[in-house]
Amino acid sequence: MSFELTTRWTAAFALVTILGAAGCRQNTEPTREEPSSARAASVPGAEANAKAKDAPLPPPPAVKLETVKEQTAKAKSEAPKAGAPKAKDSEEAKTAKPEAISSDGVTLKRLVVTNAIENREPAAVSQLSLGEGPVIAFVELKNSGSEDAAVVVTFEHAGLEPVGYVHLKVPAESRRWRTWARTRMIKKTGSWDAVVRTTDGKELARESFTIGS
Fold first, then answer.
1. Range 76-98 burial, b when 16+ CB lie within 10 A, else e
2. Domain boundaries of the chain, sorted by first residue
3. Hey, is 114 helix, strand or coil?
4. Number of neighbouring beta carbons within 10 Å of residue 147
5. Which of 21, 28, 58, 109 is most buried (most C-beta within 10 Å)?
């Protein structure tokens, strides 16, 4: 009986040894790695993603560098253009007359031909007619000098002797001196001029007017 038991234990031990050796061989056998292409093929869309990843990136867009000259020209072209002057402003600039300054510091600021004075200002008149009252030359002057000055006003017609010759005094240091010259010596219709001069003959201003019948 003892021999039989020993035999059984020996057979069992041998069986366990064989099984253990087989298990060790199975665990120590190197595992083969599946190729990446095979793994990628097994996943839907993996191949397309791999190609997109490996594709070269597109070149960056070209940037145009502007020179200083080009930038200046561009800024000028984009700048708002100044509008054309208004018709009224253009007309005023066309008809405006510069102030006339004489050698003795007298400045003529206004010359208006009329037939009446109201509140030391020339009355508006649409027409001057022969024989209907005097013709008046209204003047506004400035004397920046320290001494009194004077101007001479005449009324002139082409081909005729001037009339009037009115001397007007301008006090010293007068910023605004309003005065006028009048005449009843105009005996002819047509185009006339009221002329303002200094006492030494320098012309300061001239204003045309028409005498009707």
1. eeeeeeeeeeeeeeeeeeeeeee
2. 95-208
3. strand
4. 10
5. 109
CATH no., domain 95-208 = 2.60.40
Q: Which two tokens stand for residue 109?
A: 């600021």
Higher pLDDT, 47 or 131: 131
Q: How much of the chain is in helix, strand and coil states, percent to nearest 5?
A: 30, 35, 35
Residue with the two structure tokens 């024989």 = 131
Give the pLDDT confidence score for residue 91 in this predicted structure. Answer: 39
Structure token digits, residue 164: 């009037």
Question: pTM score, two decimals?
Answer: 0.54
For tokens 């002819």, what's the residue? 188
Return the residue matching tokens 């000098």. Answer: 145
- 103 backbone dihedrals φ, ψ, rounded to 5°: -70, -20
* Average pLDDT score over residue span 41-67: 56
